[in-house]
Each structure stands twice: as structure tokens, then as C-alpha cells.
Amino acid sequence: MQYPLYVHRDSSDGFRASFADLPLACACGATLEELRSNAQSAVELTYDRSEQLIPGPTGSMSELQSLAMDDGHGIWMYVEINLVRVTSQAVSVQFSLPDTLLRQVDACAKRRRLTRSAFFALAATREVGER
Fold first, then answer.
1. How would DSSP label each residue in the chain?
2. Cα-flanking dihedrals φ and ψ of residue 76, to 5°?
3. How is the beta sheet containing 26-29 ordered, strand by strand?
4. Vertex 58, ends 32 and 109: CA angle to 5°?
5. Kindly report the CA angle at 121 between 115 and 122, in degrees rounded to 5?
6. CA 19, 23, 25, 27 torsion: positive or negative?
7. Of 23, 15, 95, which Cα lies nearest the Cα of 58?
8. What is the pLDDT of residue 79?
9. Which pLDDT belongs to residue 89?
10. Which of 124, 4, 131 is nearest to 65 (CA)?
11. How far apart, in Å, are the Cα atoms of 111 and each of 68, 94, 129?
12. How many angstroms separate the CA atoms of 30 and 8, rounded?
């Protein structure tokens, strides 16, 4: 999947970058090619065998440019992140909902830039935490 990465020049040493959609991972490299390679490693190290949800990538440049991380001193670039190499601790579940409720969930998740799975995981986490 192509994930957006916000890249800054890091003094004279190279580049450093942060993911808009994967906030726990960051990467650096002497060259942009090294940065791309290190980005994959950073995601693997941060999210492999984690219960942390991995959302889909943001595709809207206007949405990316409105983020606080876009300080106007860097550039956005997309890097290929192979999520097959990231083993999730999440388990698959199957359940049924009324069609109208599922459409409302999907619309709300889309507005919040979440996958359906992330939406349900956050809702369940909130419910369990309130008990």
C-alpha cells in the first residue's frame, strides 16, 4: 500500500520523515532511496506483533496538507509499505448488523478516516473501558 510520508531535510545528514497514518513510526535516511527502505523497516519494527491498529493510507493531498505535521518546510511523498510483512495480533470476527446501521458506521468511519475494523475496535475499546 502507498502510505504518505512527510519528509524534512535533516541538517546535512539526510532526511527524516513521519507517517500521517502510522503515527508511531518514523524513518530517516541519508538519501531518499534509503529513507524509503527504512520506512518499511520502521513500520515493521513498530507495528509487527502489535495490537495497534494499522489504518489504510490517506489519499487526499488537501487532507494531508491540512494536518498539523505539515509545517510547510517539508514535502509529501508516498512510499510502498508491504503490510504482508507485518504480523498483526488482531483476530478476525464475524457478526451481523442491520444494513442501515452498517451504512451509518461506514459513513462515520470514512469521515474519521478509519477502516470499518478500526471503527469497531475503537468503539469496543471505549465500551469496555467504561464498564
1. -EEEEEEEEETTTEEEEEESS-TT-EEEESSHHHHHHHHHHHHHHHHTT--S--PPPP--HHHHHTSTT--SSSEEEEEE--GGGS------------HHHHHHHHHHHHHTT--HHHHHHHHHHHHHHH-
2. -90, 140
3. 26-29, 14-19, 2-10, 75-80
4. 155
5. 90
6. positive
7. 23
8. 93
9. 58
10. 4
11. 18, 23, 24
12. 12
Q: What per-residue confidence (pLDDT) applies to 73?
A: 93
Instruction: Using alpha carbons, select from 19, 67, 66, 13 the residue that is nearest to residue 43.
Output: 19
Q: Is the pTM of this model over 0.70?
A: no
Distance CA 20, CA 64 (A): 7
| Phi, psi (rounded to 5 degrees) for 31 | -130, 165
* Mean local confidence (pLDDT), 86-110: 83
Q: Which residue has cell 509529501?
A: 76
Task: Read off the pLDDT of residues 9-29 as tens digits, 9 standing for 90 and up.
Answer: 987 789 999 999 888 899 999
pLDDT per residue over 52-96, tens digit each? Answer: 777 778 888 888 898 888 899 999 999 999 888 787 655 667 889
27 CB contacts (<8 Å, ≥6 apart)? 5, 16, 17, 35, 38, 39, 41, 42
